[in-house]
Amino acid sequence: MNSIKIHKKQPTFLELLNTISGWRDTENIFLFNCNVMASPVQLVLLNVETMHYLQVMWSLRSDLNENQRDFIMCSIASWVQSVYESKDGISSSLAVHIFTVNISKLLSQVARTYEASADLPEEAISEWNEFFSQTVYNLLLHIYVQLAESLMSSDVSRSQEHLLAWMGEAVTCCPKDQLMSLQLESTGAESSPTCQIETILHHFCPMLLSRVYCIQIAAYHILNKIINDLHSLESSKVSTVSLTEDICVKKLENLNTVDSEPNLAAEATAAKYPHFEDDDENGRQPNEILMETLMKSWKGIETHLDPSESIDKQFAPSHCTLGYLLTWKLQLHFLRTASSELRADYLRYLETLNLITVLLEDIFSLIPETLVSAYQCRKDELSIANIAFKKKLSCTSAPSSDKLLQNVACLMFEEALETIPATVRQWWRKQDRAFASFIDNFTKLFISPVLCNKEIQNILSLDMNLENIVIRARSTSREIVAVYTMDDVSIEMVIALPDNYPLGSISVRSEQRKGISNSISKKWLLQLNLFLQHQNGNIMDGLRLWKRNIDKKFEGVEECTICCCVVHGTNFQLPKIQCKICRKKFHSICLYKWFNESQNSSCPLCRTLF
Ligand SMILES: [Zn+2]
Ligand SMILES: [Zn+2]
């Protein structure tokens, strides 16, 4: 009775798009390149509805023809131009607010598909990158930065937060190339930025410490895109010791958690044998602006703490703690993308200041023990690891604040284990039994399955093997097999990852060897084990180091008499110091340690004084 009549000539969804795009020429409907505040509300709402419709159409993008796609792109660009022309009303006018939120939604949906190059023809992608995205992001980021910076120290209303969240979602899709060509005003910071990367750092690092969740997350995502480029910036600088170190030292003096005795001993040794101190004994400071932000975030937390109490971040406002964790997250990314040698230098700097120990303690002050028991009875390892905490932090969906910090803390521990496994392992071994066992269970349950899988996939996806080494992976038994061949010599090493990888010991055994004596094969196994345990990198980094060691040995470089290696396991140096009497060679770091332990500066072999 109530059957709906379907006209045969009713347009399809796709045909409707052609009709709408035709309005451009005949009707005065689209609010393109104009001030939205001057337009009637009905028209604003019609435009917003059209944005919704285009969002739906974009999900069918593989069915769109070139003209239709073009219409959507041009509309986005013209609407964003309108946001720019209406920017004075962005905080006060409801029309501008609604308009901006919805164009941001459409833009982020479209930009994400371009980012993933999903279902789009090649020419559409290059057109987007070369023409549209530049205009669109230049305008939108300008407005965003201005708005976010104007709200740095004030509280924001719910509606401002809503606006910032969606704008944040859109600007974080900005491709890195566009970010690098973005024209932002100088920040008026004390040290004037010398290049684009520094300008970006000066604008977005302070936003990490904003009081508004979505501003912090957006700043994190933007900065995360340029972290790789910081390395070229750093290499052009001379390593300098700056103010931040004083702040750290002062801060650490106040902490009673710091065990100061080893430092005193080291200082005494350094004073006694100054000529054996390495030039880079204290390491190298990571990017200065990032370090300053870290110190500021720390100060932000500290002002909320009772100095007599232990450092428990849960009493500080959550935005302070989040800012601190996000800054560290960037710092870890910075370390992860550095070369092995530089990573070791940066780590030495951070460890001298005890910063990493403090970070690891802070992380676990945010992870409740109940998290482990809640999941412990469940099977299917990898999926548990993937659902226990969210991997992607989004501007628009903030979990409740205690869950948020817990989530970020879990993520941070995973990243710490991936980036600096040897340092974390060392710290873990110093903890008391109950705490160490909690960390162990946490790692087994949530992190090891993911990291083992990553290691195996990393090996499987390697299209090029190291010279003289063939590497395979056995994913079911979590084993990595490396066969080293040189002339008539060959040895097969099997690396088995423990179920709490990378916390526990990695076992290395040899199943086959040819032309190598038992004692040499034992020594090589021991060395590989040493490199896998002591360097802050993945299995592949460890294998590379081991191979370099053997290559150097074949080249005739003499090994260090103390650690029996040619290339040192943590600072990658060759044995440089030679005893004048027995002619044996040593790594300076090994000899320094020997002097320190024996309280004596004589050769470990012939006892001659150095
Ligand atoms: Zn040595
Ligand atoms: Zn000697």
Description:
The chain is elongated. It has 610 residues and is mostly helical. The protein is built from 23 helices and 6 strands. Helix content is 59%, strand content 6%. 33% of the residues are buried. Helix 18 crosses helix 19 (421-429). The model is unreliable at 239-279 (pLDDT under 50). The termini are far apart. Among the domains are: 13-183; 241-419, no CATH class. A 4-stranded antiparallel beta sheet has the order 1-2-3-4. A two-stranded antiparallel sheet has the order 5-6. The structure holds zinc ion (2 copies). One zinc ion binds next to loops.
Radius of gyration: 29 Å
Largest sheet: 4 strands, antiparallel
Helical region count? Answer: 23
Bound molecules: zinc ion
Number of strands: 6
Mean pLDDT rating:
83
Task: Enumerate the strands of the largest sheet in spatial order, edge to edge or round the barrel.
Answer: 1-2-3-4
Shape: elongated
Determine the strand fraction and express it as a percent band. 5-15%
How much helix, percentage-wise, in residues? Answer: 55-70%
Q: Structural class per helix/strand content?
A: mainly alpha
| Spatial separation of the terminal alpha carbons | 106 Å
Poorly predicted spans: 239-279
Order of helices and strands: HHHHHHHHHHHHHHHHHHHHEEEEHHEEH
Pathway: Protein modification; protein ubiquitination
GO molecular function: ribosomal large subunit binding; ubiquitin protein ligase activity; zinc ion binding
Subunit structure: Component of the ribosome quality control complex (RQC).
Keywords: Acyltransferase, Cytoplasm, Metal-binding, Repeat, Transferase, Ubl conjugation pathway, Zinc, Zinc-finger
